[in-house]
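The data are quoted verbatim here:
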Amino acid sequence: MSINIIGAGLAGLSAALTLAGQGVACRLISYAPSERAQSVMAEGGINAALDTAGEHDTVEEHYADTIRGGVYLADENAVWGLCSHAPEIVNRLDRLGVPFSHNDKGIVQRYFGGQKKKRTAYVKASTGKMLVTALIDEVRKYEVQGLVTRYPRHRFVRLITDHGVCSGVQLADRFTGEATVSGGAVIMACGGMAGLFDGMTTGSTHNTSDAAAMLFAQGVELANLEFVQYHPTTIGISGKRLLISEAARGEGGRLFVRRNGEPWYFMEEKYPELKNLMPRDVVSAEMVGVTSRDDCEDQVYLDMTGIEKTIWKTRLSDLRDQCIHYIALDPVREPIPVSPGIHYFMGGIRVDEHHRTNIRNLYAAGECACQYHGANRLGGNSLLGAIYGGRVAAETAMRDPSDQDSEIKAMPLSESDGSEVSPALAAKLSALLYRSLPILRREGEMQQAEQELRAMLTPALNEAEKRRLYLALAMVQSALNRRESRGAHKRTDYPERDDERFRQQSVVSFRDGRITLALREIPERRSI
Protein backbone atom coordinates (compact mmCIF):
# COMPACT_ATOMS: atom_id res chain seq x y z
CA MET A 1 0.00 0.00 0.00
CA SER A 2 1.27 3.44 -0.91
CA ILE A 3 -0.68 6.69 -0.82
CA ASN A 4 -0.08 9.63 -3.15
CA ILE A 5 0.00 13.16 -1.71
CA ILE A 6 -0.26 16.02 -4.20
CA GLY A 7 1.35 19.08 -2.64
CA ALA A 8 4.25 19.40 -0.21
CA GLY A 9 3.22 22.40 1.87
CA LEU A 10 2.00 22.07 5.43
CA ALA A 11 -1.05 19.94 4.61
CA GLY A 12 1.00 17.56 2.46
CA LEU A 13 3.86 17.36 4.96
CA SER A 14 1.42 16.71 7.80
CA ALA A 15 -0.27 13.93 5.82
CA ALA A 16 3.11 12.36 5.02
CA LEU A 17 4.19 12.45 8.67
CA THR A 18 0.93 10.86 9.77
CA LEU A 19 1.17 8.03 7.24
CA ALA A 20 4.87 7.35 7.74
CA GLY A 21 4.47 7.46 11.50
CA GLN A 22 2.10 4.51 11.18
CA GLY A 23 4.41 2.64 8.83
CA VAL A 24 2.41 3.42 5.67
CA ALA A 25 4.48 4.37 2.64
CA CYS A 26 3.59 7.49 0.69
CA ARG A 27 4.74 9.54 -2.28
CA LEU A 28 5.06 13.27 -1.65
CA ILE A 29 4.48 14.84 -5.05
CA SER A 30 4.86 18.55 -5.73
CA TYR A 31 5.51 21.12 -8.42
CA ALA A 32 8.45 22.50 -6.43
CA PRO A 33 10.26 21.59 -3.20
CA SER A 34 8.55 22.19 0.14
CA GLU A 35 10.80 25.19 0.71
CA ARG A 36 8.88 26.96 -2.08
CA ALA A 37 5.37 25.95 -1.02
CA GLN A 38 2.84 28.69 -0.42
CA SER A 39 2.76 27.67 3.26
CA VAL A 40 6.17 29.31 3.61
CA MET A 41 4.55 32.69 2.87
CA ALA A 42 2.16 32.58 5.85
CA GLU A 43 3.26 35.26 8.28
CA GLY A 44 1.12 35.93 11.31
CA GLY A 45 0.79 32.76 13.36
CA ILE A 46 -1.15 29.65 14.30
CA ASN A 47 -4.11 29.55 16.69
CA ALA A 48 -4.50 27.39 19.78
CA ALA A 49 -6.20 27.99 23.12
CA LEU A 50 -3.04 27.64 25.22
CA ASP A 51 -4.04 30.47 27.58
CA THR A 52 -0.42 31.47 28.18
CA ALA A 53 -1.55 35.12 28.37
CA GLY A 54 -3.69 34.36 31.44
CA GLU A 55 -6.95 35.48 29.80
CA HIS A 56 -8.82 32.24 30.63
CA ASP A 57 -8.94 31.22 26.99
CA THR A 58 -10.54 27.87 26.23
CA VAL A 59 -11.06 25.47 23.34
CA GLU A 60 -14.75 26.31 23.55
CA GLU A 61 -14.03 30.00 22.93
CA HIS A 62 -11.72 29.22 20.00
CA TYR A 63 -14.49 27.06 18.56
CA ALA A 64 -17.12 29.77 19.09
CA ASP A 65 -14.94 32.45 17.47
CA THR A 66 -14.28 30.22 14.47
CA ILE A 67 -17.96 29.39 13.96
CA ARG A 68 -18.99 33.02 14.41
CA GLY A 69 -16.19 34.28 12.17
CA GLY A 70 -17.31 31.84 9.44
CA VAL A 71 -20.85 33.18 9.87
CA TYR A 72 -22.27 29.79 10.86
CA LEU A 73 -21.54 28.08 7.55
CA ALA A 74 -18.78 25.70 8.69
CA ASP A 75 -19.30 22.07 9.72
CA GLU A 76 -19.39 22.45 13.50
CA ASN A 77 -18.21 18.90 14.10
CA ALA A 78 -15.13 19.47 11.95
CA VAL A 79 -14.42 22.82 13.62
CA TRP A 80 -14.62 21.24 17.05
CA GLY A 81 -12.03 18.68 15.99
CA LEU A 82 -9.80 21.47 14.70
CA CYS A 83 -9.98 23.60 17.83
CA SER A 84 -9.81 20.78 20.35
CA HIS A 85 -6.62 19.40 18.76
CA ALA A 86 -4.98 22.82 18.35
CA PRO A 87 -3.14 22.94 21.72
CA GLU A 88 -1.59 19.52 21.17
CA ILE A 89 -0.54 20.49 17.61
CA VAL A 90 1.14 23.72 18.65
CA ASN A 91 2.89 22.13 21.61
CA ARG A 92 4.18 19.36 19.34
CA LEU A 93 5.49 21.95 16.89
CA ASP A 94 7.23 23.63 19.79
CA ARG A 95 8.90 20.34 20.72
CA LEU A 96 9.97 19.85 17.10
CA GLY A 97 11.96 23.05 17.35
CA VAL A 98 9.72 25.73 15.89
CA PRO A 99 11.22 28.90 17.46
CA PHE A 100 7.99 30.37 18.81
CA SER A 101 8.35 33.46 20.95
CA HIS A 102 8.49 32.43 24.62
CA ASN A 103 8.38 34.03 28.03
CA ASP A 104 8.34 32.60 31.55
CA LYS A 105 4.72 31.47 31.06
CA GLY A 106 5.40 29.54 27.86
CA ILE A 107 4.62 30.29 24.22
CA VAL A 108 3.77 33.96 23.72
CA GLN A 109 0.50 34.60 21.90
CA ARG A 110 -0.86 37.71 20.18
CA TYR A 111 -4.27 39.05 19.22
CA PHE A 112 -5.56 38.24 15.75
CA GLY A 113 -8.67 39.29 13.86
CA GLY A 114 -12.09 38.10 15.02
CA GLN A 115 -10.79 36.79 18.35
CA LYS A 116 -11.15 38.32 21.80
CA LYS A 117 -8.25 36.43 23.37
CA LYS A 118 -4.53 36.28 22.70
CA ARG A 119 -4.54 32.95 20.91
CA THR A 120 -2.05 33.17 18.04
CA ALA A 121 1.42 31.66 18.52
CA TYR A 122 4.03 33.13 16.20
CA VAL A 123 7.61 33.35 15.03
CA LYS A 124 7.96 37.08 14.32
CA ALA A 125 6.17 37.44 10.95
CA SER A 126 7.66 34.27 9.45
CA THR A 127 5.58 31.59 11.14
CA GLY A 128 4.78 29.60 8.01
CA LYS A 129 8.41 29.37 7.00
CA MET A 130 9.43 28.09 10.41
CA LEU A 131 6.63 25.52 10.56
CA VAL A 132 7.49 24.20 7.10
CA THR A 133 11.18 23.99 8.04
CA ALA A 134 10.40 21.95 11.16
CA LEU A 135 8.14 19.51 9.29
CA ILE A 136 10.66 19.12 6.44
CA ASP A 137 13.25 17.99 8.98
CA GLU A 138 10.81 15.53 10.54
CA VAL A 139 9.79 14.11 7.14
CA ARG A 140 13.44 13.53 6.24
CA LYS A 141 13.67 10.91 8.98
CA TYR A 142 11.06 8.88 7.13
CA GLU A 143 12.63 9.54 3.74
CA VAL A 144 15.77 7.80 5.00
CA GLN A 145 13.63 4.84 6.06
CA GLY A 146 11.98 4.67 2.63
CA LEU A 147 8.51 5.44 3.97
CA VAL A 148 8.33 8.84 2.22
CA THR A 149 9.48 9.16 -1.38
CA ARG A 150 9.65 12.67 -2.81
CA TYR A 151 8.76 13.71 -6.34
CA PRO A 152 9.64 17.42 -6.06
CA ARG A 153 9.36 18.62 -9.66
CA HIS A 154 6.20 16.95 -10.90
CA ARG A 155 3.01 18.39 -12.30
CA PHE A 156 -0.37 16.94 -11.44
CA VAL A 157 -2.01 15.91 -14.71
CA ARG A 158 -5.20 14.06 -13.81
CA LEU A 159 -6.80 11.49 -11.56
CA ILE A 160 -7.12 7.92 -12.72
CA THR A 161 -10.74 7.02 -11.99
CA ASP A 162 -13.25 4.35 -12.89
CA HIS A 163 -16.94 4.50 -11.95
CA GLY A 164 -16.43 7.01 -9.14
CA VAL A 165 -13.36 5.32 -7.66
CA CYS A 166 -9.88 6.85 -7.71
CA SER A 167 -7.12 4.33 -8.43
CA GLY A 168 -4.19 6.69 -8.86
CA VAL A 169 -2.84 9.87 -10.38
CA GLN A 170 -1.04 10.76 -13.59
CA LEU A 171 2.05 12.95 -13.23
CA ALA A 172 4.48 14.67 -15.55
CA ASP A 173 8.11 15.40 -14.70
CA ARG A 174 8.60 19.13 -15.36
CA PHE A 175 12.27 18.64 -16.25
CA THR A 176 12.16 15.58 -18.48
CA GLY A 177 8.54 15.60 -19.65
CA GLU A 178 8.22 11.94 -18.69
CA ALA A 179 4.65 11.01 -17.76
CA THR A 180 3.77 8.25 -15.29
CA VAL A 181 0.81 6.87 -13.39
CA SER A 182 1.24 6.41 -9.66
CA GLY A 183 -1.31 3.94 -8.35
CA GLY A 184 -3.08 4.11 -5.01
CA ALA A 185 -5.31 6.47 -3.04
CA VAL A 186 -4.75 10.20 -3.49
CA ILE A 187 -4.70 13.09 -1.00
CA MET A 188 -4.92 16.49 -2.68
CA ALA A 189 -3.04 19.21 -0.78
CA CYS A 190 -2.47 21.49 -3.74
CA GLY A 191 -3.47 24.91 -2.35
CA GLY A 192 -6.15 27.43 -3.30
CA MET A 193 -7.31 28.83 -6.62
CA ALA A 194 -5.01 31.84 -6.90
CA GLY A 195 -4.53 31.25 -10.62
CA LEU A 196 -8.09 32.40 -11.31
CA PHE A 197 -6.95 35.85 -10.19
CA ASP A 198 -3.50 35.72 -11.78
CA GLY A 199 -1.25 38.47 -10.42
CA MET A 200 -3.90 39.79 -8.05
CA THR A 201 -3.41 37.64 -4.95
CA THR A 202 -0.94 37.34 -2.10
CA GLY A 203 -0.43 33.67 -2.97
CA SER A 204 2.33 31.84 -4.79
CA THR A 205 2.64 32.43 -8.52
CA HIS A 206 3.14 28.65 -8.84
CA ASN A 207 -0.48 28.10 -7.90
CA THR A 208 -2.33 28.17 -11.22
CA SER A 209 -5.67 26.63 -10.08
CA ASP A 210 -5.33 24.08 -12.89
CA ALA A 211 -5.40 21.15 -10.46
CA ALA A 212 -8.79 22.29 -9.14
CA ALA A 213 -9.99 22.85 -12.72
CA MET A 214 -9.00 19.32 -13.74
CA LEU A 215 -10.61 17.76 -10.67
CA PHE A 216 -13.81 19.69 -11.36
CA ALA A 217 -13.80 18.49 -14.97
CA GLN A 218 -13.37 14.92 -13.73
CA GLY A 219 -16.46 15.05 -11.55
CA VAL A 220 -15.07 16.09 -8.17
CA GLU A 221 -17.57 18.25 -6.31
CA LEU A 222 -16.51 21.72 -5.19
CA ALA A 223 -18.25 23.87 -2.59
CA ASN A 224 -18.58 27.49 -1.42
CA LEU A 225 -16.58 28.94 -4.32
CA GLU A 226 -18.22 32.34 -3.83
CA PHE A 227 -16.33 32.95 -0.59
CA VAL A 228 -13.09 34.68 -1.58
CA GLN A 229 -11.24 36.41 1.24
CA TYR A 230 -9.85 39.88 0.68
CA HIS A 231 -7.15 40.63 3.23
CA PRO A 232 -7.46 44.28 4.35
CA THR A 233 -3.78 45.15 4.30
CA THR A 234 -1.94 44.39 1.07
CA ILE A 235 0.18 46.40 -1.34
CA GLY A 236 0.54 45.88 -5.08
CA ILE A 237 4.03 44.84 -6.22
CA SER A 238 5.26 43.28 -9.45
CA GLY A 239 3.14 40.24 -10.35
CA LYS A 240 1.19 39.93 -7.08
CA ARG A 241 0.10 41.55 -3.82
CA LEU A 242 2.44 41.96 -0.87
CA LEU A 243 0.78 40.90 2.39
CA ILE A 244 1.15 43.15 5.41
CA SER A 245 0.46 40.61 8.12
CA GLU A 246 -2.45 40.95 10.51
CA ALA A 247 0.26 40.68 13.15
CA ALA A 248 0.90 44.39 12.56
CA ARG A 249 -2.58 45.21 13.82
CA GLY A 250 -2.34 42.55 16.53
CA GLU A 251 0.66 44.43 17.89
CA GLY A 252 -0.98 47.86 17.74
CA GLY A 253 -1.14 48.94 14.08
CA ARG A 254 -4.09 51.27 13.35
CA LEU A 255 -6.02 51.88 10.13
CA PHE A 256 -7.00 55.40 9.19
CA VAL A 257 -8.29 57.44 6.27
CA ARG A 258 -8.03 61.20 5.92
CA ARG A 259 -11.47 62.73 6.43
CA ASN A 260 -11.67 66.44 5.72
CA GLY A 261 -7.88 66.42 5.79
CA GLU A 262 -7.55 64.84 9.26
CA PRO A 263 -6.74 61.19 10.13
CA TRP A 264 -9.89 59.24 11.02
CA TYR A 265 -9.29 55.92 12.79
CA PHE A 266 -12.59 54.58 11.54
CA MET A 267 -12.37 50.99 12.83
CA GLU A 268 -11.81 52.19 16.38
CA GLU A 269 -14.84 54.46 16.19
CA LYS A 270 -17.15 51.92 14.56
CA TYR A 271 -16.05 48.80 16.46
CA PRO A 272 -14.86 49.86 19.92
CA GLU A 273 -14.45 46.27 21.22
CA LEU A 274 -12.23 44.63 18.56
CA LYS A 275 -11.30 47.84 16.72
CA ASN A 276 -8.79 47.09 13.95
CA LEU A 277 -9.02 43.37 14.64
CA MET A 278 -12.52 42.72 13.40
CA PRO A 279 -12.79 39.75 11.00
CA ARG A 280 -11.17 40.38 7.64
CA ASP A 281 -14.41 40.56 5.68
CA VAL A 282 -15.67 43.33 7.96
CA VAL A 283 -12.46 45.37 7.80
CA SER A 284 -12.19 45.10 4.01
CA ALA A 285 -15.81 46.16 3.52
CA GLU A 286 -15.34 49.13 5.85
CA MET A 287 -12.27 50.21 3.88
CA VAL A 288 -14.31 50.22 0.68
CA GLY A 289 -17.04 52.17 2.44
CA VAL A 290 -14.91 54.96 3.87
CA THR A 291 -12.91 55.53 0.68
CA SER A 292 -16.19 55.92 -1.21
CA ARG A 293 -17.35 58.82 0.98
CA ASP A 294 -17.24 62.36 -0.33
CA ASP A 295 -15.52 63.65 2.81
CA CYS A 296 -12.73 61.05 2.71
CA GLU A 297 -9.69 60.52 0.53
CA ASP A 298 -9.48 57.33 -1.53
CA GLN A 299 -6.51 55.82 0.31
CA VAL A 300 -6.41 53.96 3.64
CA TYR A 301 -3.18 53.89 5.66
CA LEU A 302 -1.83 51.50 8.26
CA ASP A 303 -0.19 53.47 11.05
CA MET A 304 2.42 51.41 12.88
CA THR A 305 4.49 54.32 14.16
CA GLY A 306 3.17 53.86 17.70
CA ILE A 307 4.42 50.28 18.06
CA GLU A 308 7.20 49.99 20.65
CA LYS A 309 10.78 49.54 19.46
CA THR A 310 11.18 46.28 21.37
CA ILE A 311 8.19 44.78 19.55
CA TRP A 312 9.67 45.78 16.20
CA LYS A 313 12.92 44.07 17.13
CA THR A 314 11.51 40.89 18.65
CA ARG A 315 8.25 40.33 16.76
CA LEU A 316 8.01 42.36 13.54
CA SER A 317 11.54 42.88 12.23
CA ASP A 318 10.94 40.79 9.11
CA LEU A 319 7.72 42.69 8.32
CA ARG A 320 9.66 45.96 8.54
CA ASP A 321 12.32 44.58 6.22
CA GLN A 322 9.66 43.65 3.64
CA CYS A 323 8.21 47.16 3.63
CA ILE A 324 11.61 48.77 3.21
CA HIS A 325 12.66 46.31 0.49
CA TYR A 326 9.47 46.21 -1.61
CA ILE A 327 7.92 49.66 -1.21
CA ALA A 328 10.83 51.77 0.10
CA LEU A 329 8.86 52.90 3.16
CA ASP A 330 9.88 52.39 6.78
CA PRO A 331 6.73 51.63 8.83
CA VAL A 332 8.51 52.61 12.02
CA ARG A 333 8.64 56.21 10.78
CA GLU A 334 5.60 56.69 8.50
CA PRO A 335 2.19 55.15 7.80
CA ILE A 336 2.02 52.90 4.76
CA PRO A 337 -0.75 52.87 2.11
CA VAL A 338 -2.76 49.63 2.08
CA SER A 339 -5.76 48.22 0.26
CA PRO A 340 -7.64 44.90 0.31
CA GLY A 341 -6.21 42.10 -1.82
CA ILE A 342 -7.28 38.53 -2.53
CA HIS A 343 -5.66 36.30 0.05
CA TYR A 344 -7.51 33.03 0.68
CA PHE A 345 -10.22 30.81 -0.79
CA MET A 346 -12.64 29.44 1.77
CA GLY A 347 -14.25 27.30 -0.94
CA GLY A 348 -12.67 24.38 -2.71
CA ILE A 349 -12.93 20.61 -2.96
CA ARG A 350 -15.98 19.48 -1.03
CA VAL A 351 -14.97 17.17 1.81
CA ASP A 352 -16.75 15.73 4.79
CA GLU A 353 -15.57 15.88 8.38
CA HIS A 354 -13.06 13.10 7.62
CA HIS A 355 -11.76 14.80 4.46
CA ARG A 356 -13.37 12.36 2.05
CA THR A 357 -14.53 13.70 -1.32
CA ASN A 358 -17.40 12.40 -3.46
CA ILE A 359 -14.84 10.16 -5.23
CA ARG A 360 -13.85 7.04 -3.33
CA ASN A 361 -10.13 6.90 -2.41
CA LEU A 362 -9.75 10.64 -3.04
CA TYR A 363 -9.18 13.00 -0.11
CA ALA A 364 -8.29 16.68 0.21
CA ALA A 365 -6.79 18.95 2.87
CA GLY A 366 -5.49 22.47 3.28
CA GLU A 367 -6.65 25.48 1.28
CA CYS A 368 -7.68 23.33 -1.69
CA ALA A 369 -10.44 21.82 0.47
CA CYS A 370 -13.68 23.38 1.63
CA GLN A 371 -13.39 22.86 5.38
CA TYR A 372 -13.26 24.70 8.74
CA HIS A 373 -13.65 28.32 7.62
CA GLY A 374 -17.23 28.68 6.40
CA ALA A 375 -17.88 32.08 4.87
CA ASN A 376 -14.75 33.75 6.25
CA ARG A 377 -11.46 32.49 7.67
CA LEU A 378 -10.05 33.81 10.92
CA GLY A 379 -6.40 34.80 10.83
CA GLY A 380 -4.24 32.09 12.41
CA ASN A 381 -6.60 29.27 11.48
CA SER A 382 -5.14 28.51 8.04
CA LEU A 383 -1.87 27.00 9.27
CA LEU A 384 -3.78 25.08 11.92
CA GLY A 385 -6.32 23.87 9.35
CA ALA A 386 -3.58 22.70 6.99
CA ILE A 387 -1.71 20.69 9.63
CA TYR A 388 -4.81 19.22 11.27
CA GLY A 389 -6.55 18.60 7.94
CA GLY A 390 -3.54 16.80 6.49
CA ARG A 391 -3.47 14.56 9.56
CA VAL A 392 -7.19 13.75 9.36
CA ALA A 393 -7.07 13.05 5.62
CA ALA A 394 -4.16 10.65 6.12
CA GLU A 395 -5.86 8.89 9.04
CA THR A 396 -9.00 8.44 6.96
CA ALA A 397 -7.08 7.15 3.95
CA MET A 398 -5.37 4.54 6.16
CA ARG A 399 -8.68 3.53 7.70
CA ASP A 400 -10.69 3.21 4.49
CA PRO A 401 -10.50 -0.15 2.71
CA SER A 402 -8.51 -0.01 -0.52
CA ASP A 403 -7.26 -2.66 -2.89
CA GLN A 404 -5.67 -0.25 -5.35
CA ASP A 405 -2.45 -1.18 -7.14
CA SER A 406 0.29 1.16 -5.93
CA GLU A 407 2.77 0.60 -8.75
CA ILE A 408 4.27 3.37 -10.89
CA LYS A 409 3.84 2.87 -14.63
CA ALA A 410 4.67 4.91 -17.71
CA MET A 411 1.71 6.55 -19.46
CA PRO A 412 2.24 9.07 -22.27
CA LEU A 413 0.44 12.39 -22.05
CA SER A 414 -2.53 12.96 -24.32
CA GLU A 415 -2.62 16.13 -26.38
CA SER A 416 -5.22 17.69 -24.07
CA ASP A 417 -3.25 16.83 -20.93
CA GLY A 418 -0.20 18.62 -22.25
CA SER A 419 -2.04 21.86 -23.00
CA GLU A 420 -1.54 25.04 -20.99
CA VAL A 421 -3.52 28.22 -20.40
CA SER A 422 -2.16 31.09 -22.49
CA PRO A 423 -0.96 34.19 -20.59
CA ALA A 424 -3.38 36.34 -22.61
CA LEU A 425 -6.42 34.30 -21.57
CA ALA A 426 -5.21 34.09 -17.95
CA ALA A 427 -4.91 37.89 -17.80
CA LYS A 428 -8.30 38.44 -19.42
CA LEU A 429 -9.99 35.99 -17.06
CA SER A 430 -8.33 37.51 -13.99
CA ALA A 431 -9.48 41.01 -14.90
CA LEU A 432 -13.03 39.79 -15.52
CA LEU A 433 -13.29 37.96 -12.19
CA TYR A 434 -11.66 40.77 -10.23
CA ARG A 435 -14.15 43.22 -11.69
CA SER A 436 -17.21 41.04 -11.13
CA LEU A 437 -16.36 39.53 -7.70
CA PRO A 438 -15.13 42.48 -5.64
CA ILE A 439 -15.65 42.98 -1.92
CA LEU A 440 -19.11 44.48 -2.54
CA ARG A 441 -20.88 42.60 -5.31
CA ARG A 442 -23.66 43.59 -7.68
CA GLU A 443 -25.94 41.27 -9.60
CA GLY A 444 -25.60 43.11 -12.91
CA GLU A 445 -21.80 42.83 -12.90
CA MET A 446 -21.91 39.12 -12.05
CA GLN A 447 -24.51 38.44 -14.75
CA GLN A 448 -22.34 40.28 -17.25
CA ALA A 449 -19.36 38.18 -16.20
CA GLU A 450 -21.36 34.98 -16.66
CA GLN A 451 -22.30 36.03 -20.19
CA GLU A 452 -18.71 36.95 -21.05
CA LEU A 453 -17.39 33.65 -19.71
CA ARG A 454 -19.86 31.69 -21.81
CA ALA A 455 -18.88 33.73 -24.86
CA MET A 456 -15.20 32.95 -24.21
CA LEU A 457 -15.86 29.18 -24.30
CA THR A 458 -15.15 28.64 -27.99
CA PRO A 459 -13.86 25.56 -29.89
CA ALA A 460 -10.59 27.41 -30.51
CA LEU A 461 -9.56 27.01 -26.87
CA ASN A 462 -7.40 24.12 -25.72
CA GLU A 463 -8.65 21.79 -22.98
CA ALA A 464 -6.73 23.48 -20.16
CA GLU A 465 -8.25 26.84 -21.06
CA LYS A 466 -11.75 25.39 -21.20
CA ARG A 467 -11.30 23.76 -17.80
CA ARG A 468 -10.18 27.02 -16.20
CA LEU A 469 -13.10 28.91 -17.73
CA TYR A 470 -15.58 26.33 -16.43
CA LEU A 471 -14.07 26.67 -12.95
CA ALA A 472 -14.43 30.46 -13.16
CA LEU A 473 -18.00 30.09 -14.38
CA ALA A 474 -18.80 27.83 -11.42
CA MET A 475 -17.47 30.50 -9.07
CA VAL A 476 -19.56 33.26 -10.64
CA GLN A 477 -22.69 31.11 -10.70
CA SER A 478 -22.20 30.24 -7.02
CA ALA A 479 -22.01 33.94 -6.19
CA LEU A 480 -25.10 34.75 -8.25
CA ASN A 481 -27.09 31.96 -6.64
CA ARG A 482 -26.34 33.06 -3.06
CA ARG A 483 -28.86 35.88 -2.72
CA GLU A 484 -27.72 37.12 0.67
CA SER A 485 -24.70 38.74 2.33
CA ARG A 486 -22.61 36.41 4.48
CA GLY A 487 -18.95 36.70 5.42
CA ALA A 488 -16.75 37.36 2.40
CA HIS A 489 -19.77 37.33 0.07
CA LYS A 490 -21.42 40.75 0.34
CA ARG A 491 -24.13 41.78 -2.13
CA THR A 492 -25.47 45.31 -2.43
CA ASP A 493 -28.82 43.97 -3.71
CA TYR A 494 -29.19 41.44 -0.86
CA PRO A 495 -27.48 43.17 2.08
CA GLU A 496 -28.95 40.94 4.82
CA ARG A 497 -28.07 37.42 5.91
CA ASP A 498 -30.76 34.84 5.18
CA ASP A 499 -30.25 31.81 7.43
CA GLU A 500 -33.55 30.22 6.49
CA ARG A 501 -32.62 29.84 2.81
CA PHE A 502 -28.86 30.08 2.62
CA ARG A 503 -27.28 28.59 5.72
CA GLN A 504 -26.22 25.80 3.39
CA GLN A 505 -23.21 24.86 1.30
CA SER A 506 -23.14 25.89 -2.34
CA VAL A 507 -22.10 22.71 -4.15
CA VAL A 508 -21.11 22.63 -7.83
CA SER A 509 -20.47 19.62 -10.03
CA PHE A 510 -19.63 19.15 -13.70
CA ARG A 511 -21.15 16.48 -15.90
CA ASP A 512 -21.32 16.19 -19.68
CA GLY A 513 -20.22 19.76 -20.25
CA ARG A 514 -22.75 21.24 -17.82
CA ILE A 515 -22.38 22.85 -14.41
CA THR A 516 -24.94 21.85 -11.80
CA LEU A 517 -25.37 23.91 -8.66
CA ALA A 518 -27.21 22.83 -5.51
CA LEU A 519 -27.52 23.88 -1.88
CA ARG A 520 -26.67 21.15 0.64
CA GLU A 521 -27.46 21.06 4.33
CA ILE A 522 -24.62 21.51 6.79
CA PRO A 523 -24.17 18.39 8.96
CA GLU A 524 -25.98 18.57 12.27
CA ARG A 525 -23.87 19.25 15.31
CA ARG A 526 -23.24 16.27 17.52
CA SER A 527 -22.89 16.58 21.26
CA ILE A 528 -19.42 17.95 21.98
